[in-house]
Write a structure and sequence with these properties.
By secondary structure, the protein is an alpha/beta fold. Helices cover 31% and strands 24% of the residues. 46% of the residues are buried. The chain binds NADPH dihydro-nicotinamide-adenine-dinucleotide phosphate and oxaloacetate ion (OAA).
Length: 275
């Protein structure tokens, strides 16, 4: 087991240099997260990644996924969902930590949780594009009667989702809101692997992927990725909505990288606020 103490310096790897990875790399390389050092990055296109790294305040090597674990203490996974296990397994195997953004893929990689439990490594799921996981986790210590979420995204925020193709749903030229999915978080993670990680984070915090229910709307009248959660439990009833400004990737909100930075800072802070 190689878990670190709060005061040790953590060597951070970033796997995936898209909307989230680039934003994280800029912030960590600028020294804005005390106790964390950006040590290596990985991307599909190494030339493009090297060009990006040259703009950072600290220079780090661009490595393959396999080369990250031997030189880093923790990995932040922000790559396509299909790579989740390849990126995270070596770190967990070594008893180290992984912050996971492709949360939906955790449902189809049960071995990662088992690996973490066996090795003493940790998988961290940030609140990401969502809101209120602290309240859901607290409510889950008692009895939660129901968890429902409604997501509205501009059509381009849902483009390319396998569920749309499988059901021959076309969003081109949409002029009014269209409900494109109603079901549970597990089916949403299959049908929208790059668009609805948030509902899986909600499921893991609360009542699990079968009982967490979701509607997805392709809505040409909204410009923000909007998620509303409704929870009813024996301790509280709450409804919360977040309206995310998309990043350069229309599927991903700007707040996601900020949520990860907040998590990194909390790991090293003496005062930790929130559940
Ligand atoms: N938990 C949450 O709240 C949220 C989670 N997400 C999820 O986070 C993940 C990242 O999102 P986002 O940054 O928007 O995605 P992007 O599509 O913007 O970036 C993905 C990056 O992964 C890289 N990549 C592709 N193949 C490989 C490979 N073989 N090795 C290393 N890197 C590779 C790409 O590299 P290259 O540039 O070279 O092509 C690209 O830079 C996605 O799974 C997304 O669904 C997104 C939003 C919210
Ligand atoms: O959950 C996701 O993958 C992304 C999302 O909805 C958002 O950024 O609003």
């Amino acid at each position: 087991m190689q878990q670190q103490s709060q005061t040790e310096v953590t060597r951070v790897a970033i796997a995936g240099l898209g909307a989230i990875g680039q934003s994280l790399a800029r912030t960590i390389a600028a020294g804005e997260v005390p106790g964390m050092i950006l040590t290596a990055v990985s991307a599909r296109n190494h030339d493009k990644a090297r060009e990006f790294v040259s703009t950072l305040k600290t220079q780090v090597p661009v490595l393959t996924i396999e080369e990250l674990e031997p030189v880093c203490d923790m990995v932040i996974e922000c790559a396509p969902a299909a790579l989740l296990s390849d990126i995270v397994s070596p770190f967990l195997n070594a008893g180290k930590s992984a912050i996971v953004l492709s949360v939906g893929a955790l449902l189809f990689n049960d071995h990662l949780r088992e690996l973490a439990n066996r090795s003493g490594g940790s998988i961290y799921v940030p609140t990401g594009a969502l809101i209120g996981l602290d309240a859901v986790i607290a409510a889950a210590q008692g009895d939660i009667h129901s968890v429902r979420m409604i997501t509205r995204k501009p059509p381009q925020g849902l483009a390319g989702a396998p569920h749309l193709e499988a059901n021959q749903i076309t969003l081109d030229g949409l002029t009014e809101p269209l409900k494109v999915f109603e079901g549970n978080a597990r089916d949403a993670a299959k049908g929208f692997p790059a668009n609805l990680n948030v509902v899986v984070a909600l499921a893991l915090a609360g009542v699990g992927p079968e009982k967490t229910l979701l509607e997805i709307w392709a809505d040409p009248t909204v410009t923000r990725n909007t998620h509303s959660i409704n929870v009813d439990s024996d301790s509280a009833r709450f409804t919360m909505t977040i309206e995310n400004i998309p990043s350069e990737n229309p599927k991903t909100g700007r707040i996601v990288a900020q949520s990860v930075i907040a998590m990194l800072k909390k790991m090293k802070a003496g005062l930790k606020v929130g559940t």
